[in-house]
Amino acid sequence: MALRTAFVDEHIARQTQRLTSEYYPHRRHWPARLFHHAPLENAVAILQAGFLRSRNDPFNRHPRDVAAPDVINTRVDAHDHVRLYFRPKTPTQYSIEGIRKLNECPYGEVTHAPFLVMFAFDARSVLCQPDVRFSDRNMQIGTTVSGNTEDYFGQIPFEKVFSEGNTGGDRSITDARSAEVLTSSPLSLRDCLREIYFRSEPERDTVLHMLGAQRETWAKMGHVSDALKVFQKRHTFVQEVTLTPEGVTFLLNPRHDLEKVKVAISITDAAGR
């Protein structure tokens, strides 16, 4: 059952107005968007294909799987759907983003995403699709039941979904921050992708370089901006790179705890040697 366009517009307007305040003002940009984060390899594959696909989609190249096995294998209910979040900086993203030391990923090294890219989709375009579903928490939680009606949507606790800061140990807030939107696979990027966000210019340049001939197709959508604050930035990533006749200078984003980071450098020439 599709949500009425007027219903979706009213939801976006109401939440945007509620979040337009001096406290975490960046949140006012969230309701008009839906979010999907992806590690570097997956992000490039998604852009090259022009589609975001479900986990079970046979055409999903999915070169890097950062899902925690003990979590993703708990339930398969959402595996046939493209999965988006109402907000960035979900609990999952908190656990995987950034270059980390060994054993710093709570769900194991397989979940480590040193280089993360954020896709922002137009909420109105997606939520008005005829087969869209949504949930009030993460679909991997055993008790989560998705819905597709305006009554169900109206009961999603968006004051918790869009909340920022400490939860005070309230598990319902943590769960709500992972509320999802489920659509059929594949989801065309040309139809509803608004922006692609990167943590730094070097990361943006890396993705565009890897896209090769498709670079210009997506370059205008790629942004390095904190306007929406879609990244945690608690761990290391390459923040700046400067090339001069004397050599290369690079700046790393400092860890949240200011601990030192071990660095190893490898150099490859144009011939790949």
UniProtKB/TrEMBL annotation:
Active site residues per record: 75, 180
Annotated catalysed reactions: a thymidine in DNA + NAD(+) = an N-(ADP-alpha-D-ribosyl)-thymidine in DNA + nicotinamide + H(+)
Protein name (database record): DUF4433 domain-containing protein
GO molecular function: DNA binding; glycosyltransferase activity; nucleotidyltransferase activity
Family: Belongs to the DarT ADP-ribosyltransferase family.
Domain DarT: 32-238
Bilayer-crossing regions: none
